[in-house]
Design goal:
The chain is α+β, with helices and mostly antiparallel strands and 273 residues long. It contains eight helices and ten strands. Helices cover 26% and strands 32% of the residues. An eight-stranded antiparallel beta barrel has the order 1-2-3-4-5-6-7-8. A hairpin with a 2-residue loop joins β2 and β3. α1 runs parallel beside α5. The C terminus is likely disordered. One of its GO terms (molecular function) is DNA binding.
């Protein structure tokens, strides 16, 4: 039996890499972690019952684990896409995946916000391909020492390329998640550093008021110093020498558009995560 199942352990390791932790997976499917390690290391094969349980956890059939690794990877990605996306948006992402490839990598993302009047917010973002989808993750890290406010916001979502535009739909991480939507113009022929567009969301310091504002994404490449990237996140005065001229000129040409009259920000001492 070992010869026909020569690909099992490699494919199982690949499948497990899509989970947060192997221990969590073992608890979920009810298989002892030490026994599961033997499967991962190729020391033994699972019983028919355990094999069926493992395959079901990944939305696969037992025989799929003996496929050549490249074929298995494709099938695993296909199953994950179907599991992650259902309903009317199932076919919306990623649109033209080939067109998105030049945009994969890290960005410094700038925008104005109702939550921080007269300031420009700098965040960092990452676009990466995974299983046929383009995942986007964004981090905002703001410390307002004057008002004692510390804000840590994380967003995760999907990207799509359609009608020569880049659409980003993100969900905030936390107990009460909300959505954000960003639409970016692609690179120009002779300008391949900045993406300009519009971002929409709600302002936590203005009673969750919906608003839209301009945004600029500065492309930094596929490999960056992540610590340095995150350290630049924060809020900046418009006269800060840190702001690139292309960012400042685009963002200060227009103010955020709110769904209702904007009142003074709430005196929160700490932002929600």
């Amino acid at each position: 039996m070992s010869k026909p199942w020569a690909n099992f352990s490699n494919n199982l390791r690949l499948a497990c890499s899509t989970h947060r932790s192997v221990s969590e997976l073992c608890r979920t499917i009810g298989i002892n972690r030490q026994q599961f390690n033997r499967y991962l290391n190729g020391g033994t094969l699972p019983s028919a019952h355990n094999l069926l349980t493992i395959a079901a956890a990944f939305g696969l059939e037992p025989v799929d684990f003996d496929l050549p690794p490249g074929v298995f990877r494709s099938k695993l990605g296909e199953r994950r896409r179907h599991a992650d996306l259902t309903g009317p948006l199932a076919d919306a992402f990623p649109g033209d995946l080939h067109a998105l490839e030049p945009y994969l990598g890290f960005y410094q993302a700038w925008h104005t916000s109702l939550s921080w009047p007269d300031r420009i917010v700098c965040a960092c973002a990452h676009l990466r391909e995974n299983g046929g989808q383009v995942l986007v993750s964004t981090l905002e890290r703001i410390e307002d020492t004057e008002n004692g406010i510390v804000q840590r916001s994380r967003y995760v979502g999907l990207a799509a390329y359609r009608h020569e535009r880049i659409f980003l739909t993100e969900l905030t991480r936390g107990e009460a998640p909300t959505f954000g939507q960003t639409i970016l113009m692609p690179f120009e022929t002779y300008q391949r550093r900045y993406l300009r567009g519009i971002t929409m969301g709600i302002s936590w310091r203005a009673n969750n008021l919906p608003y839209a504002t301009r945004t600029v994404w500065h492309y930094l490449g596929k490999r960056v110093n992540k610590r340095s990237l995150i350290s630049r996140c924060g809020i900046y005065a418009p006269n800060s020498a840190t702001l690139p001229p292309a960012v400042l000129s685009f963002l200060t040409e227009a103010q955020p558009v709110a769904a209702a009259p904007v009142q003074a920000p709430r005196p929160d001492r700490r932002a929600p995560p």
